[in-house]
Amino acid sequence: MTARSSRDKLDTISNDPWRAIVTGSGKNKTKATSVKPTKPGRVPRRIKAQPVDMDVKTQPLQKRSRQTYEAILAAAGALLEEVGIEQLSTNLVCKRAKLSPPALYRYFPNKYALLRELGARLMQRQDEEVFDWMENGGLRAGDVEEIRQSILVVQDRVNAITMKEPGGRWIMRALRAVPTLHEVRIASRELVAARMSEALARIFPKASPHKLLVAARLATEVGYAAGEMAVDEPEHAEELIDELAWMFALYFERFRT
Fold first, then answer.
1. Whether 81 contacts 163, CB under 8 Å
2. Which of 90, 121, 155, 171 has its CA 20 to 30 A from that of 76?
3. What is the pLDDT of residue 30?
4. CA 200, CA 191: separation in Å to the nearest integer?
């Protein structure tokens, strides 16, 4: 099997339990395990495959290489909106970006490395918006209604970032649905939760730091879930975010006592 055909085969791994089970192993690597269908009542036999490399192979340094790198990511994001996660392939990205396969493989070994980079970028943009909100007193609003209004503002901004990003809603789906990408979303959650718990500790100095961290982690996770629902169901986005804001405002209020 050639290197190119191996990559193409890797790009077609799906979440279908009869085709592949993907489990985490090692830093930015995942072992993909093929599952062979068997007769009803029998447990399918798992056949070990090659590890999936999730790292960007080369960081672009020159202007031309940076342009190529960005063109690859832009093409991948646009294609996600058109074909979804399962049908996305490095061959499609090459055609859309008008690049040869070697030009793409210089940076990304497979489509999962592409999705990981898209996910990391989206999470960073969302996180920076939340950090800016906190640094400007977003959590220091007075009563429950003021806190609710403040949370509405930041959640709307975060959702706008997702919608503006090419393939943004599909990137969010991939981060939750594809096991190889879970670490990207989890790393973002832990970073935001740590900063949020520090901000809450300044507002509620008598509260247990441990409880504040637990509350921040839970709030961040719920915020991600609500954001996904809002971009997937734009017709219900306003009421979803309003309910989320009420939940957070009332939840944080308990720390005043």
1. no
2. 155
3. 40
4. 14
Q: Is residue 97 included in any domain, yes or no?
A: no
Q: For the chain, how far is it from start to end, CA to CA, in angstroms?
A: 66
Largest distance between two CA atoms of the chain: 66
CATH number, domain at 242? 1.10.357.10
Predicted confidence (pLDDT) per residue in 135-169, tens digit: 998 887 678 888 899 999 999 999 999 999 999 99
Pick from 40, 45, 52: nearest CA to 6? 52
24 - beta bridge partners? 30
Burial tier of 98 (Cβ tally within 10 Å: 0-12, 13-18, 19+): exposed
DSSP label at 46? E
Please report the sign of the dihedral spanned by the C-alpha atoms of residue 233, residue 112, residue 84, residue 67.
positive
154 — phi, psi (to 5°)? -70, -35
* C-alpha–C-alpha distance, residues 151 and 154, integer Å: 5
Split into its structural domains, the chain has a count of: 1
Phi, psi of 30 (to 5 degrees): -135, 135
- Is residue 210 included in any domain, yes or no? yes
* Residue 175: partners with Cβ closer than 8 Å, 6 or more residues away: 119, 123, 181, 182, 184, 185
Residue 102 lies in a domain: no
User: What residues make up the domain containing 155?
Assistant: 119-256
In this predicted model, what pLDDT tens digit does every residue of 74-126 receive, in sequence order? 999 999 999 999 999 999 999 999 999 999 999 999 999 999 999 999 999 99
What the block records as the tokens of 219 is: 């709030």
Does residue 199 form part of some domain? yes
Cα distances (Å, whole numbers) of residue 194 to 89, 124, 212, 217: 36, 15, 9, 8
3 state DSSP class of 207: coil
